[in-house]
Amino acid sequence: MDTLELAYTIVDALEEKKGENILILDIREISLLADYFVICSGTSPRMIDALSEGAVSAVKDEHQIKPRLEGSAYAGWILSDYGDVIVHLFSPDRREYYALEELWREARVVIQIQ
C-alpha cells in the first residue's frame, strides 16, 4: 500500500466532514517516526469527534487498517496513528499551542487546503 494514498484517503474524509486548514507534511527525510503527518482543525469537540470517526471509517473501508487513538475531542486534540501516517486533529487553540507546522517546518508540504 502506498502511504501517500492512505494520507489522501484521510484528507478526503476530513474534507467531507468540513475539516479546516488541512495539511499533509512529508516527514520521510527528517524523521523515522512516520512518512506523513496529516494535520487538521475542527471548531468544536463534536466536530473533532466527527472528523476522527470519518477518517477512521474511510481508512477501514478502503485500506482495512484501524489506527491507535490517543487524546480526546474534549481535550482539544486526537491523534490517530496508522503507522506510516499520523493524523493530528486539533481545536484551533490546541493547534496553535502545539505548533506542529513550526516544529516540523523542515518537512515538505504535500498539500494544504484552507
What do these coordinates show?
A hairpin with a 3-residue loop joins strand 4 and strand 5 (85-90). It contains four helices and six strands. Helix 1 packs across helix 2. Helix content is 39%, strand content 31%. The protein has a six-stranded mixed beta sheet with strand order 3-4-5-2-1-6. The model has no long low-confidence stretch (mean pLDDT 96). With 114 residues, the chain is α+β, with helices and mostly antiparallel strands.
Please render the helix and strand layout as text.
Elements: H1 3-16, E1 20-26, E2 36-41, H2 45-63, E3 68-72, E4 77-81, E5 85-90, H3 92-98, H4 100-103, E6 108-113
Instruction: Identify the CATH homologous superfamily.
Output: Beta Polymerase, domain 2
- Total strand count, please? 6
| Biggest beta sheet attributes | 6 strands, mixed
Alpha-beta content class: alpha+beta
Termini Cα gap = 27 Å
> Major sheet: order of its strands?
3-4-5-2-1-6
Query: If you compute it from the alpha carbons, what radius of gyration comes out, rounded to the nearest whole angstrom?
Result: 13 Å
Strand % is 25-35%
- Helix share, percent: 25-40%
Query: Number of helix segments?
Result: 4
Topology order in helix (H) and strand (E) letters: HEEHEEEHHE
Overall pLDDT: 96
CATH topological fold name? Beta Polymerase, domain 2
Low-confidence spans = none
Tell the overall outline.
globular
What oligomeric arrangement do these chains adopt?
Answer: single chain
